Amino acid sequence: MSAPDDAMSRVRRKRMEIFAFLFLTAVVMPVLAVGTVGSYGLGVWIYQMFAGPPGPPPSPH
């Protein structure tokens, strides 16, 4: 009697693993990528507000 329950739990587990994989690849990873790039850009922007834009120093003429 436990064989059908075991088969159903395997099917359910496989379905949940597929759902978890799709959730990670379609939702979590893009959010992490956008958050990482966005926070780096924000950090550079804030740094440049205090240190000035990159480039050679102005000429002393």
UniProtKB/TrEMBL annotation:
Membrane-spanning segments: 21-47
Sorted UniProt keywords: Membrane, Transmembrane, Transmembrane helix
Protein name, as recorded: Periplasmic nitrate reductase, NapE protein
Gene transcribed to yield this protein: napE
